[in-house]
Amino acid sequence: MTRSAELLLASLIDYAGTFPPVRLTLSDAMAAYPHDRCSPCRSILGRFVIAADQPGEFESIAPTLVTACDGCWNLTVVRTRESMPTGDRLLRFNQMWKDRGSLAQPHAEVP
Hints:
By secondary structure, the protein is an alpha/beta fold. The chain has helices at about 5-10, 25-35, 55-65, 85-95, and strands at about 15, 45-50, 75-80, 100-105, 110.
């Protein structure tokens, strides 16, 4: 792949393994993500996507699956208006997982 193509495609595709059509459990998706981050297509792999009700579940699973050698996981929350985590909740998550995980302010909304 040319350098210009790499730049164009960088982080283009987010990893949403818990959503259709794949519908993995969060644990299975979290186990697969580091493998995919080491694949030949790793440069196009973007953020790990979780549902708005999953940060707590992520935190309970992460100690066994997220290691320092994986680098920081950049996460995105997909939400509905009703399921939006509070700003305080997002801040606490980012403080607790500093250098291992970073939860972006939600920007996607599912009707």
